[in-house]
UniProtKB/TrEMBL annotation:
Its EC number is 2.5.1.75. It comes from the Bacteria. This is tRNA dimethylallyltransferase. Substrate binds at T12, A13, T14, G15, K16, T17. HAMAP family: IPP_trans (MF_00185). ATP binds at G10, P11, T12, A13, T14, G15, K16, T17. The record marks S119, R142 as: Interaction with substrate tRNA. GO terms for molecular function: ATP binding; tRNA dimethylallyltransferase activity.
């Protein structure tokens, strides 16, 4: 088949994974997640991997010799989850290099890669490439910024590269190391622009994309977010966190800074009421959804579908069929 890629993007709680599975079954596809929270092993419920009880995890060998985790869920392959442990660092450059190999593997077997997620920066790195991937560290700048507070680093990044700050997920936006790296990149980008342009690194050699965006009325989206958080509590996120701590994961680990996990720290350590945890969690998810929409709305290639419309899935199927047959 031609080297096509279907993309399903949008804010959290709009049903992207469910739609992705449906498209995979209809168009002989395999899902590739672009969610910066779902790359961590063992962080399943809080990050919303939305796997059924029948899902099985397999190790799959790539032509490069690497072995990668892949879920088989209801006969659909799902890639991009469980790539690293909570103790490991994982840059957008590492993510891109690995996912490109996975997509090549999917193409070589004659299937359709379906990119599903809400991490806009990861998606941009895959589709368009980013000029930041090979910028070397600036030790002098890092030393200068090492005494800055998180708030001061955020203000510095907003001043240099506001768009990059808006693209960051909640844990990255509160992580000093990630903020310093973003400032470092922002300054180097400005320097390169004054030198007459920036060279971009492209990962995927195809322009045959169909971008599907799922949107929702704000009030309804926030209601869905609240329902999702409550369901994750019923599904056992508290027990999941207990298991992670017992396995040696620390609250200071980057994975534990993710939404759905960090909000539980005071509950476990200070006896905070569960109702307060849920309030904080829901607010953070709503804030994330607003940032995601701000980012995705700037992308003019996306064809948007309002999920409140009763016929939206039929419209999506029509659009995909038309593109797939070309």
């Amino acid at each position: 088949m031609k080297r096509k890629i279907l993309i399903i993007c949008g804010p959290t709680a709009t049903g992207k994974t469910r739609l992705g599975k449906k498209m995979a079954k209809m168009f002989d596809g395999e899902i590739v997640s672009f969610d910066s929270r779902q790359v961590y092993r063992g962080f399943d419920i809080g990050t919303g991997k939305d796997l059924s009880r029948l899902a099985k995890l397999e190790k799959v060998g790539l032509e490069s010799g690497e072995e990668v985790n892949c879920y088989i869920d209801q006969d659909v392959k799902i890639w991009g989850n469980d790539l690293i442990s909570a103790k490991e660092e994982f840059s957008v450059s590492q993510y891109t290099k690995l996912i490109v190999k996975i997509i090549l593997n999917i193409w070589e077997r004659g299937h359709l890669p379906i990119l599903v997620g809400g991490s806009g920066f990861y998606l941009k790195a895959l589709i368009d490439g980013v000029e930041t991937m090979n910028i070397s560290p600036d030790e002098d700048l890092r030393l200068m910024l090492s005494d800055y507070s998180v708030d001061e680093l955020q203000k510095e990044l907003i001043k240099i590269d506001r768009e990059r700050f808006l693209q960051m997920n909640d844990s990255d936006a509160k992580n000093s190391r990630r903020l310093i790296r973003a400032i470092e990149i922002g300054r180097k980008k400005d320097e390169k622009k004054t030198e007459g342009g920036v060279k971009k690194k492209f990962g995927l050699k195809t322009n045959d994309f169909l971008w599907i965006g799922l949107s929702s009325e704000k009030e309804e989206l926030f209601r869905q977010i609240e329902k999702r958080v409550e369901k994750r509590v019923l599904d056992g996120v508290e027990e999941e966190i207990k298991g992670l701590i017992k396995a040696g994961v620390n609250w200071s680990d980057l994975a534990m800074q993710s939404i759905g996990y960090r909000q539980w720290r005071d509950y476990f350590e200070e006896g905070e009421k569960k109702e307060v945890v849920l309030e904080k969690w829901i607010k953070k998810e709503c804030d994330l959804a607003k940032r995601q929409m701000t980012w995705f709305k700037k992308e003019k290639r996306i064809k948007w579908f309002l999920i409140e419309r009763p016929d939206f899935e039929l419209k999506v199927v029509e659009e995909v069929k038309k593109w797939y047959k070309k």
